[in-house]
């Protein structure tokens, strides 16, 4: 059976996911077969495994850092919020049903056997499993029947590193307060603390570290600086969504929907030299971009109503009528059509008029399509016509069937079973697709940048395709370097060896 170590945090957003990815990379570099594990994740960014299973994006990234294929057992429970009080519950990679929070809390103990089976499966096949908690173990209102923090640590007999975020301030109170609220047997499982996202001269911090050691009785494993690495983000806490810069040669505006999902689709485009990707939440922020993208969402109807209410829909319609290319991905594609209907109450029930930019209609049902796909863009019209025939790869993850009553397909895809089908729709300067990761193919991102530069009368010859896989590998290696230089890995290995 594998040895294990668990990373827990004093709150959400302290950098647990990134630290787990870094530890996975370091352990891989040191010759270990390592796998990530998070029993329950709540996030709208997800990914598709080779068998079509859906798991949290963070665990996909951590598996990539570990150099292994992502699997459903790395994240047996995924909660995708549909409202402020309810989520779609995904178990072992497949959608179970949508539940209000109160019902889920009463139900989740039934999922403990699924968690155990998933962890035991990984533990039987890997040398080390690096576990990630969620939120904080000191949320006393949630401690009963905990399956993701100290409850999971006890279940898997995993020693714990407790991480605090100094960037938000009050890191010593975060850590000491968390330890104070833990039960004695839980405190005994915390073997070291880590301070994350530090900026400045560490010597100034040293007196505080001495006090932290004295008052906690626990060693400080490291002070990790704010890591400047470009790695896919887990959810809407991402600082990526705060980008507002319009100075790049190619200005791409992405609508920051309230329930935005899989905004990581735009990362490959943002790494192309000369392309700037920014996120907008109002007509004033939209401005006059070179490309408008409406990304995925877990609440298509509600988010379309939000765009309508705040004036973004009208602003996008004006940009479209002026010739600006508009791209909708997944839920964004559904919004571009004539109508969205939800007869079974999959989201919120009823129907809503679409934006009317594409001749499509969408009907939600209970079937969820989850599959990796690849293929080529079809014969496109308008400002992105030169993308015609460009290879693409990605995955589909959506509920609802969209039928086109005109226009042309956006691409032709082939799933891993060799089945081919047309996907999406395009008409003039408006394009829609269900393919997440459409820009993951370097040639596609490169072709978009070239087409938009040429449209502005600029020279596109310097645009080079980005090898995204190689780029990500460099980012993981840089993250591993940061972890090695700032975390006492000898201590981490002793903790792994000694366990709890």
Name a few traits of the molecule:
29% strand, alpha/beta, 500 residues, globular, six-stranded parallel sheet, six-stranded mixed sheet
Unreliable segments (pLDDT under 50, ≥5 consecutive)?
none
N→C terminal distance: 15 Å
How many helical elements?
Answer: 16
The portion of residues assigned to helices is 25-40%
What shape does the CA trace take? globular
Query: Strand tally, please?
Result: 26
Mean pLDDT: 92
* Class inferred from helices and paired strands: alpha/beta
How are the strands of the biggest sheet laid out side by side?
2-9-1-10-11-12
**Beta strand %:** 25-35%
C-alpha-based Rg, rounded: 23 Å
The protein's oligomeric status is single chain
| Major sheet | 6 strands, parallel
SSE layout and pairing:
Layout: E1 3-9, H1 16-29, E2 34-37, E3 40-42, E4 46-48, E5 54-56, H2 57-66, E6 77-83, E7 86-91, E8 94-100, H3 101-107, H4 112-125, E9 128-132, H5 150-156, E10 160-165, H6 171-181, H7 184-187, E11 190-198, H8 202-216, E12 220-225, E13 250-255, E14 260-261, H9 267-270, E15 275-280, H10 283-286, E16 291-294, E17 296-297, H11 300-310, H12 312-321, E18 326-329, H13 331-335, E19 339-342, E20 350-353, E21 360-377, E22 391-404, E23 411-415, E24 420-423, E25 425-427, E26 430-433, H14 442-455, H15 468-486, H16 489-498
Parallel strand pairs: 1-9, 1-10, 2-9, 3-6, 10-11, 11-12, 13-15, 13-16, 16-18, 18-26, 19-21
Antiparallel strand pairs: 4-5, 6-7, 7-8, 14-17, 19-20, 21-22, 21-23, 23-24, 25-26
């Amino acid at each position: 059976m594998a040895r294990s170590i668990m990373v827990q945090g004093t709150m959400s957003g302290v950098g647990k996911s990134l630290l787990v990815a870094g530890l996975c990379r370091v352990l891989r570099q040191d010759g270990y077969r390592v796998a990530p594990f998070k029993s329950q994740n709540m996030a709208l960014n997800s990914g598709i495994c080779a068998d079509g299973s859906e798991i949290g994006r963070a665990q996909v990234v951590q598996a990539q850092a570990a150099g292994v294929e992502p699997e459903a057992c790395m994240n047996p429970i995924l909660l995708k919020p549909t409202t402020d009080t309810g989520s779609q519950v995904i178990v072992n990679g497949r959608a179970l049903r949508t539940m209000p929070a109160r019902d889920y809390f009463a139900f989740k103990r039934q999922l403990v056997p699924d968690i155990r089976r998933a962890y035991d499966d990984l533990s039987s096949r890997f040398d080390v499993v690096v576990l990630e908690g969620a939120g904080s173990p000191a949320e006393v209102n949630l401690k009963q029947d905990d399956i993701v923090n100290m409850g999971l640590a006890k279940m898997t007999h995993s020693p714990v590193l407790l991480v605090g975020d100094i960037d938000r301030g009050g890191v010593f109170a975060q850590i000491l307060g968390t330890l104070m609220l833990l039960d004695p047997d839980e405190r005994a499982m915390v073997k070291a603390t880590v301070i994350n996202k530090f900026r400045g001269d560490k010597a100034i911090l040293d007196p505080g570290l001495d006090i932290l050691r004295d008052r906690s009785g626990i060693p400080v494993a490291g002070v990790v600086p704010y890591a400047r690495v470009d790695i896919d983000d887990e959810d809407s806490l991402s600082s990526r969504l705060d980008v507002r810069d319009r100075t790049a040669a190619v200005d791409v505006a992405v609508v920051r929907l309230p329930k935005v999902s899989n905004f990581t689709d735009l990362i490959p485009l943002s790494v192309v030299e000369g392309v700037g990707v920014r996120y907008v939440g109002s007509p004033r922020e939209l401005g006059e971009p070179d490309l408008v993208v409406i990304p995925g969402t877990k609440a298509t109807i509600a988010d379309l109503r939000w765009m309508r209410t705040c004036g973004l829909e009208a602003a996008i319609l004006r940009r479209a009528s002026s010739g600006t290319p508009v791209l909708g991905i997944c839920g964004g594609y559904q919004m571009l059509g004539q109508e969205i209907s939800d007869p079974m109450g999959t989201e919120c029930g009823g129907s809503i008029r679409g934006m009317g930019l594409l001749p499509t209609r969408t009907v939600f049902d209970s079937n969820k399509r989850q599959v990796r796909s690849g293929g080529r863009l079809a014969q496109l019209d308008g400002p992105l016509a030169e993308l015609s025939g460009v290879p693409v790869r990605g995955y589909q993850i959506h509920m609802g069937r969209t039928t086109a009553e005109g226009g042309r397909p956006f691409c032709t895809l082939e799933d891993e079973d060799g089945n081919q089908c047309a996907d999406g729709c395009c008409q003039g300067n408006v394009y829609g697709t269900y393919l997440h990761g459409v820009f993951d193919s370097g040639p596609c991102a490169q072709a978009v940048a070239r087409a938009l530069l040429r449209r502005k009368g600029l020279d596109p010859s310097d645009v080079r395709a980005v090898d995204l896989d190689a780029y990500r590998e460099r980012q993981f290696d840089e993250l591993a370097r940061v972890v090695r230089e700032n975390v006492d890995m000898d201590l981490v290995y002793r903790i792994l060896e000694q366990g709890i």
